[in-house]
C-alpha cells in the first residue's frame, strides 16, 4: 500500500514483518503491521492510500470479501488496486477435473497447493471486486514455472522415473502437452488469460465504497434480510 510518500504493509506473520523491516533501507522504512486480514479491520485511516497491492493473498482467506472491503476503505477515490491469484481455470486444472469427473483440489499433482482454501477464475475475481466497490480496468495473465525440489532419495527418483522417461512423457501428444506448447509458442496466456494463464493479475479502481463488509457463513434456512445484505452468496 502506498500514498504520495507513505508506504505501508500488512501480514499475518510477525516473522515476515520483522524480516521486511530489517531488510528495508533505514531512510525508507515502511509502516508494517501484523494483521489477520481474514477477520480484523486494517489499522489505517479511511482513504489514506493511492494504491494497494494484494499479491497471492485471497486464495488463503476464508473471507476475501472482508479483505477487499478493508482495502476499499483505505483507498482514496479512484485509487488503484492490483490483485494476483492462481487461476483455477488454467487448462491443466480443467483437464484434471475432466479426467477425475469432479471439481477437486485433491489431485496429488503438486500444482494446486493444499494451503489454498479458495479458488478463483477471472469471472469470480471480477465479481468480488465489483461488489466491493471496484471497477476492473485490466486483466492480465501470468506464467509461472513450477520448480520441483531435487531429492537425493533413491526411492523418490525411482517413482519419478529416469530423465529419459520424463522427457518422453513430456513429448507424448496429450491434450495438455499440445496446449502447453501452443501456449508458449503463441503467448496464448497473454491473449486468453482465463484459460491459458496459470495466474491472474487484475487491475481495478475504487469507484464507490464497498457494498459488503463480510461474506460470513449464514444458515440459508434462517437468515434474515439484514444478513442477506452482507452476504455475497445472496446476490441474485
Briefly summarize what is shown.
The chain has 236 residues and is an alpha/beta fold. The protein has helices at 14-23, 64-74, 91-100, 122-131, 154-160, 163-171, 175-186, 188-191, 193-196, 225-228; strands at residues 8-11, 31-34, 49-55, 75-86, 134-142, 199-206.
Distinctive features:
236 residues, alpha/beta, two-stranded parallel sheet, Rossmann fold, globular, 4-stranded mixed beta sheet, 10 helices
Description of the structure:
With 236 residues, the chain is an alpha/beta fold. It has a domain at 35-154 and 192-234: Rossmann fold. The protein is 34% helix and 19% strand. Strands 3-4-6-5 form a four-stranded mixed beta sheet. A two-stranded parallel sheet has the order 1-2. The longest helix is centred in the C-terminal third of the chain and has 12 residues, at 175-186. The model is unreliable at 154-159 (pLDDT under 50).
Which spans of ≥5 residues are poorly predicted at pLDDT below 50? 154-159
CATH hierarchy class name of the domain at 35-154 and 192-234: Alpha Beta
Number of helices: 10
Written as H for each helix and E for each strand, in order along the chain, the element string is: EHEEHEHHEHHHHHEH
Assign a percent range to the helix content.
25-40%
Strand order of the biggest β-sheet: 3-4-6-5
Amino acid at each position: 500500500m502506498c500514498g504520495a510518500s507513505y508506504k505501508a504493509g500488512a501480514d499475518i506473520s510477525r516473522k515476515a514483518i520483522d524480516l521486511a523491516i530489517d531488510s528495508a533501507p533505514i531512510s525508507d522504512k515502511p509502516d508494517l503491521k501484523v494483521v489477520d486480514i481474514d477477520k480484523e479491520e486494517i489499522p489505517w485511516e479511511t482513504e489514506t492510500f493511492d494504491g494497494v497491492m494484494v499479491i497471492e493473498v485471497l486464495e488463503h482467506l476464508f473471507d476475501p470479501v472482508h479483505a477487499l472491503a478493508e482495502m476499499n476503505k483505505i483507498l482514496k477515490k479512484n485509487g488503484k488496486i492490483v490483485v494476483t491469484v492462481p487461476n483455477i481455470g488454467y487448462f491443466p486444472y480443467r483437464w484434471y477435473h475432466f479426467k477425475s469427473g469432479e471439481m477437486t483440489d485433491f489431485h496429488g499433482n503438486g500444482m494446486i497447493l493444499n494451503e489454498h482454501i479458495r479458488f478463483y477464475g477471472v469471472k469470480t475475481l471480477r465479481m468480488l471486486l465489483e461488489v466491493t466497490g471496484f471497477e476492473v480496468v485490466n486483466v492480465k495473465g501470468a506464467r509461472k514455472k513450477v520448480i520441483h525440489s531435487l531429492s537425493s532419495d533413491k526411492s523418490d527418483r525411482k517413482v519419478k522415473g529416469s530423465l529419459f522417461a520424463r522427457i518422453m512423457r513430456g513429448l507424448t501428444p496429450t491434450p495438455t502437452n499440445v496446449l502447453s506448447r501452443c501456449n508458449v509458442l503463441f503467448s496464448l496466456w497473454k491473449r486468453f488469460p482465463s484459460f491459458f494463464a496459470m495466474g491472474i493479475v487484475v487491475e481495478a479502481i475504487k469507484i464507490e465504497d464497498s457494498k459488503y463488509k463480510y461474506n460470513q457463513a449464514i444458515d440459508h434456512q434462517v437468515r434474515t434480510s439484514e444478513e442477506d445484505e452482507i452476504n455475497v452468496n445472496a446476490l441474485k
